[in-house]
Amino acid sequence: MNFKSILCSAAVLLPVVATAQQKAATPDLTFTTVVANPITSIKNQASSSTCWCFSTMAFLESEAIRINNIKDAKNYPDFSEMFVVNHSYQERAAKYVRLDGNLNFGPGSEPDDALHIMKDYGLVPQSIQEGLNYGTTLPSHSEMDASLLTYIEGINKRASRGLTAGWKNGFKGIVDAYLGECPESFEYNGKTMTPAEYRDSYKLNSDDYVSLTSFTHHPFYTKFALEISDNWRWDESYNVPLDVFMDVLYNAVKNGYTAVWGTDVSEAGFTRDGIGLLLDPNAGKAPAAGSDQEHWVGPAAPQAAAQAKPAGAPKEIVPTQEWRQEGYDNKSTTDDHGMQIYGIAKDQYGNEYFMVKNSWGETGKYKGIWYVSKNFVAGKSMDYTIHKDALPKDLKKKLGIN
Q1: Within 13 Å, how many C-alpha atoms sit on residue 202's CB side?
Q2: Which of 33, 36, 167, 154 minimizes the C-alpha distance to 105?
Q3: What are 210's strand-pairing partners?
Q4: Residue 3's pLDDT is what?
Q5: 3-class DSSP state for residue 338?
C-alpha cells in the first residue's frame, strides 16, 4: 500500500499518541467571508481511504449547481461515492493483473479516476447506492480492502499459468457484497433512467475538467503524469509556474468556480480546529489511530484547549517554486488527502485564506470547513482540478486547451 492509503485508512491500528498537529500552537483567528460558492452538505468518509472520491463528488455536485443554476438547496444533488468506488476498484484490479502486479493496489486514488468513471458509467444518486451493505452507518472499509488485496494478489500469482473468465466476476462479487451492485437503471423522481442519463441530466462532461500542478522537474506549459502511487491511471496534469498556479485558482474561486484539491495534511499547521497554516515543515510527526481525520491530525486531547497560542498574525513560510520542488523530491510534501476548495475568506489581519470543504463529518470549530492560508496551498498542493472555462483565455491557448 502507498503512503496515503496506509495513513488515510482508519483500518490501520496504530498507537494513539499526541501528534505534532495537536502540539502546534496556532493564532487565535477570526474570519470574514469574501466569497463562498455553493456546496452541498458535509459528508463523512469515516474509516475509508476514499477522500479522492468524496472530494470529487462534492466538486461535481457544486458543478451541477453552477451549470444548472440551481438556487434552492433542497434541489442540490447528492451523488453516490460508492458507485464510483465500486467501478474504480474493478478497473484497477484489471490493470493490476495486466501489469503483473506492478501497480499500486489500494483504496487511494485521484480525482481523474472519478471523472473516468463518470464518463464511462455515469453517476447515481446517493439514495440509490449508499454502499453500506456490511452493517455500519458510515463507511468502514478495512475488511473489504484486505479481502480485495488478498484476492487480487492470489489471482496475480497464478496469472502466468493462464486465467479463466471467472476471476473478474469473483472480484466483482466481493466489491458488490460490501458496496452494493451498481445499477444499470433505477427509478428516481418518478422516472426510470440509466446512470448515464442521470449524469447527463446535470450537463456534466468529464472532458470539461483539467488538472493543474506546479513542479520544475518537468517543463512548464506541458503535461505530465504526477509521479505518485495513487495516480494509477497515469493521468496527466498541466504544469505551470507557481504564480500562475495560484492566480488561476484564486480567480476561479472569485468567479464562481470550485476545485478539487490534492494536498499534504500531515503538517503541524493543519489542525483539528479547521485551520491550515504553513508552519515549520520539520515538526515531528507521530502515528495516530481511528478515523481518517485522526490519521492526519491526531485524536482529540483534553489538554489541547489549555495550550498557549501565539499572539498576533500568523507567521508562515512563504514558499517558492524551489521550496515546493524540494518538498516533493525529499518527501516532506506528500499526496495525503483530497478536499474541495470553494471560497475565500480574510482573517482579522487582512490575510486571505481558501475555504475548504472536508469529508471528515461536521467536525472541528467550523463544522467540517477548513480555512487554509494561501501560503499553505502554494507550498503543499499536489494539484487541483477545475473546469477548463475557469482558465484565462491566454493560458488555455498556451496549453492547447479548446
Answers
A1: 26
A2: 154
A3: 386
A4: 38
A5: strand
